Amino acid sequence: MAEAEILRVKLVRSPIGCTQRQRQTLRALGLTRVGRSAVVHNNAPTKGRIRAVEHLIEVQK
User: Fold this and answer.
1) Chain-centre distance of CA 48, in angstroms?
2) Is residue 1 part of a domain?
Protein backbone atom coordinates (compact mmCIF):
# COMPACT_ATOMS: atom_id res chain seq x y z
CA MET A 1 0.00 0.00 0.00
CA ALA A 2 1.32 3.46 -0.90
CA GLU A 3 2.23 5.82 1.88
CA ALA A 4 -0.28 8.63 2.37
CA GLU A 5 0.85 12.09 1.35
CA ILE A 6 0.99 14.61 4.15
CA LEU A 7 0.70 18.39 4.31
CA ARG A 8 2.00 20.86 6.87
CA VAL A 9 -0.45 23.64 7.67
CA LYS A 10 0.46 26.73 9.66
CA LEU A 11 -1.88 29.29 11.20
CA VAL A 12 -0.67 32.72 10.04
CA ARG A 13 -3.67 34.95 10.84
CA SER A 14 -5.81 35.20 13.94
CA PRO A 15 -9.31 33.70 13.85
CA ILE A 16 -10.68 36.65 15.86
CA GLY A 17 -13.60 38.03 13.89
CA CYS A 18 -14.16 34.75 12.04
CA THR A 19 -17.24 32.63 12.36
CA GLN A 20 -17.57 29.91 14.97
CA ARG A 21 -17.56 27.31 12.19
CA GLN A 22 -14.20 28.55 10.88
CA ARG A 23 -12.74 28.42 14.41
CA GLN A 24 -13.98 24.85 14.77
CA THR A 25 -12.42 23.96 11.43
CA LEU A 26 -9.05 25.32 12.58
CA ARG A 27 -9.30 23.24 15.74
CA ALA A 28 -10.14 20.16 13.65
CA LEU A 29 -6.94 20.78 11.69
CA GLY A 30 -5.02 20.95 14.97
CA LEU A 31 -4.32 24.69 14.84
CA THR A 32 -4.87 26.55 18.09
CA ARG A 33 -2.49 29.52 18.07
CA VAL A 34 -0.98 31.83 15.49
CA GLY A 35 2.41 30.55 14.40
CA ARG A 36 1.69 26.91 15.24
CA SER A 37 1.75 24.23 12.57
CA ALA A 38 0.26 20.76 12.22
CA VAL A 39 0.82 17.79 9.95
CA VAL A 40 -2.33 16.45 8.28
CA HIS A 41 -3.10 13.78 5.68
CA ASN A 42 -3.79 14.93 2.15
CA ASN A 43 -7.28 13.54 1.55
CA ALA A 44 -10.67 14.89 0.46
CA PRO A 45 -12.05 15.84 3.92
CA THR A 46 -8.83 17.62 4.85
CA LYS A 47 -8.75 19.50 1.54
CA GLY A 48 -12.27 20.76 2.27
CA ARG A 49 -11.25 21.98 5.72
CA ILE A 50 -8.19 23.72 4.28
CA ARG A 51 -10.29 25.43 1.61
CA ALA A 52 -12.73 26.73 4.23
CA VAL A 53 -9.99 28.59 6.10
CA GLU A 54 -7.37 29.13 3.38
CA HIS A 55 -7.30 32.88 4.10
CA LEU A 56 -5.98 32.15 7.63
CA ILE A 57 -3.43 29.42 6.96
CA GLU A 58 -0.34 28.60 4.92
CA VAL A 59 0.04 25.14 3.36
CA GLN A 60 3.34 23.40 2.62
CA LYS A 61 3.84 20.01 1.01
Assistant:
1) 10
2) no
